[in-house]
Design a protein that fits this description.
Length: 429
């Protein structure tokens, strides 16, 4: 096999940022530069022209995702400076044939992206016959978030076609090596480079990995990742963004500073001042769990120092109380994480009303037993257990993007300039 090619996907909406990141990636050893679909949609064909002008010696890939009017779009991209134009494999045969014909006329090449093709093997064999130059196995971002593995998709067509294979979809230094080992000649990397704190270094490491086949372990969007490990790494703000601005549990704040809890919910429904079921829940909860108590947000305390001692010795992660807590000074000495709505010195009575491990609703937030509870100084957020893998992946993606933005601010830019807020405001007006 030929020396593997590193293609860097520039999936930005801001051309200035894309050029800056591309320059760092080239310094790190990037072979091809991909003008991503978001960038083309945001900045138009000018994005291809600018990349061509700034990087005249690099092969420019225009991820047009052509699905219709094949000749027209290939011509436009080629005249703008694209060396390779991406066409969707789900496009009609006639469109792909037109793209190949136009590419021959205008001196560019065609890469077919098999994103969302139902039968990869049969479609790869079909489009190869049309004379395309490259075929790309691509797992989209939304598929990555639910754990679709691009390497497994690649294996379906390795050695089935003769044209060079590309792979895209959450590729990092770990999966890049696996991709090369499984027949990919073009490794397309986006976020693992463009979101890196040091873009040049990240590019160099991935380039070295695919050339020498040495894996460097990194986070990977995958089906079997441990949500708890990810939720401990990211913030409740990241998780809220990942869940499309999900609400926190109303009014609940930590009584300790610089505290964080992550665990599965043991839910308690009780009444203001009735601490029987909250205390009984300690015997039901397991190590690493979080007890979530709905005491209707008011009344006398349903939790205190002795209950906290019991949890701490058992290894329970923390307690969230939509109601009142007391003995705050002693709980702080214990350094046991308690989040509560109210603080009072007055204890309630153990009446025994309520239930344990039933769905509860606090304000707009529903909590079911086994849901993931994440709390920090911004508040407490709930991730439904059935969506935990996807939310963890999306939160990690947001966390990594913020690292890159933070570095650009440190380098002298500002958040407003990076996001080009004024530009988009003008469009809305």
């Amino acid at each position: 096999m030929k020396k593997p090619i590193l293609q860097v996907a520039l999936d930005f909406v801001d051309l200035n940022r894309a050029v800056k990141i591309a320059d760092l990636a080239v310094k790190g050893g990037a072979d091809w530069l991909e003008v991503g679909t978001p960038l083309i949609k945001s900045e138009g064909l000018n994005a291809i022209k600018v990349m061509r002008k700034n990087f005249p010696k690099k092969k420019i890939v225009a991820d047009m995702k052509v699905i219709d009017t094949g000749r027209l779009e290939i011509e436009a991209a080629a005249k703008s400076g694209a060396d390779i134009v991406v066409v969707l494999g789900v496009a009609d045969d006639s469109t792909i044939k037109e793209c190949v014909s136009a590419a021959n006329n205008y001196g560019c090449e065609i890469m077919v992206d098999l994103l969302n093709c139902r039968n990869l093997e049969s479609r790869a064999l079909e489009v190869e016959k049309f004379g395309v130059d490259y075929i790309c196995v691509h797992v989209g971002i939304d598929q990555q978030m639910i754990g679709v593995d691009p390497i497994q998709e690649l294996k379906k067509i390795t050695k089935k076609v003769r044209v060079p294979l590309a792979i895209a979809g959450g590729i990092n230094s770990e999966t890049a090596v696996k991709a090369v080992e499984n027949g990919a000649e073009i490794v397309v990397v986006g976020g693992a480079i463009t979101k890196a704190k040091n873009v040049e270094k990240a590019t160099r490491e991935i380039k070295k990995a695919i050339l020498k086949k040495r894996i460097r372990r990194t986070f990977l969007y995958k089906k079997h990742l441990d949500p708890v490990k990810v939720f401990k790494k990211v913030s409740t703000a990241n998780i809220s963004d990942a869940m499309h601005r999900a609400e926190i549990i109303e009014g609940v704040k930590p009584i300790l500073n610089e505290v964080k809890i992550v665990g599965k919910a043991v839910t308690v429904r009780t009444y203001p001042g009735d601490w029987a079921k909250p205390v009984e829940a300690i015997d039901i909860a397991k190590e690493g769990d979080v007890i979530v108590i709905d005491a209707l947000g008011s009344g006398k305390a349903v939790w205190g120092e002795l209950a906290s001692w019991s949890c701490k010795l058992k290894g329970i992660e923390g307690v969230v109380i939509y109601g009142s807590v007391r003995d705050v000074e002693e709980i702080r000495k214990l350094k046991f994480p308690v989040f509560a709505k109210n603080v009072t010195s007055t204890a309630g009575e153990p009446l025994g009303l309520g239930e344990i491990n039933v769905p509860i609703k606090i304000g707009a937030v529903t909590i079911k037993p086994g849901d993931y509870i994440i709390g920090d100084e911004d508040g407490v957020i709930v991730v439904p257990k059935e969506n935990a893998i996807e939310v963890a992946n999306r939160a990690l993606d947001i966390f990594e993007k913020e690292i890159r933005i933070r570095e650009e601010i440190k380098e002298g830019s500002s958040l407003g300039k990076i996001l080009e807020l004024e530009k988009w405001e003008k469009v809305r007006k």
